[in-house]
C-alpha cells in the first residue's frame, strides 16, 4: 500500500465508494479508499434475506448502542451501521427512494435544490438500475389497494400511495454502491480493508493525511474526505481536534478548530408498528411452511428466487397521519413475515408486520466521543421524542394505519392484529406502546450538517476552519429526507466527487 496519495477517502460506505470512484474517474488524482471492516465478498451480503444474519454481526456491523432514551423509559436502542465495503448499503433492506423533491429545496442551500441534484440520482440509477421487486409475497402485492388510485407502481413520498417498493437489487442479488462503482475499480483508485482510521493529521490548519489505529501514517497531497457516516465521521473529527473546545480539552485532545456544532443535530426516523398473526397469512415457522423453508436455499442458488430473494421489507406506504388533505408525513414499511414481539429472535406462527415512521421528525439528539481511543464507542443520544409533536404524529399514524390495513384486499390471507392488539386504542395507551416499543429505521443523519455561517460543513462539503478536508455522507444532511436514506447518501457521494474534483483542479 502506498504511503502517499493525492486523496484519502475514509469509509467505503454508500457515499464513500462513489466519491472515491468519481474522484478517480474525473482524474482528480490518485485515491486511497480506506475501510475499517472486511470486503463484501460474502454470500450473505449478496443474498437479500442475508441481512437478518448480518445485522448484529460483530464482524460486519459496528453494533453501536444509543444512550438510555429519556422518552422511551430509559431504553437503549441498537444503532445498526455497516462495517464492510458497501457500508450500511451492504446490510440494509435495499429500499430505494430519492426522497421528496421539497426535502432538498427546504435545505435552502446553494447547489442542493432538487433541480441541482436530480441529475446525480439519474447518474447513479443508470449504474445501479434499481427497480420494483419481482416475486413479492401476495400480501405485499395486495398492499397497493390501500390507495388503489395510485396503481401498482412503487409508492412515492410525494403523495399518498402504497405498494411494492423499488430496491437496488438486480437478478435477485444486492447491488450496492460498491457493486456499481468499484467493480472494477477505476484507474488510480486503491482500496484497503480492515484498516481503521484513528485521526486526521494536520500541518498547520490543513489536513495532510491520516493516522491509522495501528499507528500507520498515510499522507495525502490534496486532502482527506470523511465518508464514515453520521456516527463515524464526527467521531474521527473530534479525535482529530475539530469539535467543541471544552469537550476536546477535557479528553486531552489538542484543539485544531473549535466547532461547537460537530456532533449536534443527530436525528433519525422514529418508528413503531403493528403485528398481525394468523394461519395462512405471511411467511413464518409453521409445519406447513417447513418444506418451503427447506427448499429455499436451493431455489435461491439455482434461480435467485424464493424466500431468500426477499429483503424482508417488501412493500409499504406513505400517508398523512391525521388524514388531512396534505402531503404524507409518515411512512410504512411492510414485512410479510411473522415477527416476534416477545423479545425472541425466532417465533412460531404465520403473520405480517407494518410500522409507522415519521418522515420529518423534529426531535434532535447529539453525538459525543467518550475517549480519544478509536476503539471506544461514542455516546449516541438519538433524542427521540424530545419534541412532543413527534410522538403525537406517530400515535395518529398508528391509529390511521389500523384503519388503512382494514381496507387492504388481503383476501383469505388476512390476519387479526395480535400486538399491541385492538384493545389499545386510546391516545394514552398508544403513547405507552410507542415508549415501550418504538425504535428507529436505522437512518441517522445530520451530525455534520451543511449550512452557512457556523455550520460544521459548507455547502461545498468542506470542513470549516481547516483546509484540505471534506465530508461526504449522510452526516451532512441538515434535515433527513422523507424516506429511506440510502439513495440520498449515494447522491451526496456523487455530488462530492464532482465538487472536490472541481475545487482542487
Please characterize this protein's 3D structure.
There is one protein chain. This protein is an alpha+beta fold and 505 residues long. The protein has two domains: 1-130 and 172-268 and 365-385 and 443-505, FAD/NAD(P)-binding domain; 135-167 and 270-358 and 387-437, Cholesterol Oxidase, domain 2 (2-Layer Sandwich). The protein has 13 helices and 26 strands. Strands 6, 17, 18, 19, 20, 21, 24 and 25 form an eight-stranded antiparallel β-sheet that branches. A hairpin with a 4-residue loop joins strand 12 (206-212) and strand 13. The protein is globular, with a radius of gyration of 22 Å.
Summarize the structure.
With 505 residues, the chain is an alpha+beta fold. It is built from 13 helices and 26 strands.
